[in-house]
Amino acid sequence: MAENFFLDEPAFEGVTDSILVSGTNLGTAYGKLNDVLLATQGCWGDDDIGKAFEKNYWENAEEVRVGMSDAGEGLVQSSKNVHEKATVLADLDERNAKWLDSQVGEE
After folding, report:
1. Which one of 6, 33, 86, 100 is most buried, counting C-beta atoms within 10 A?
2. For 37-72, b where at least 16 C-beta lie within 10 A, e where not — what string?
3. CA-angle at 11, arms to 105 and 29, nearest 5°
């Protein structure tokens, strides 16, 4: 059977694990940021300065909250997708190697 594969499956899985950890860490950071943002919402008061601050601050803070959540979830999903594709490629590579060996004989 062919001993050299084009896909280094353990290294590829290491990459997917790193992506998963990054996504999970970002999700954790998002949760902490979200808790702080929600806990401090309105602390600037109801006067004109407070209302102006809220208008300029809260919309941007909300965009950060949504963006971080989406990014964390995206990284986790990407990791799962890449891992799945790596498994499919490794299986295909193995099947192809066996087929080639059956055509030319093992050395």
Report:
1. 86
2. eeeeeeeeeeeeeeeeebeeeeeebeeeeeebbeeb
3. 155
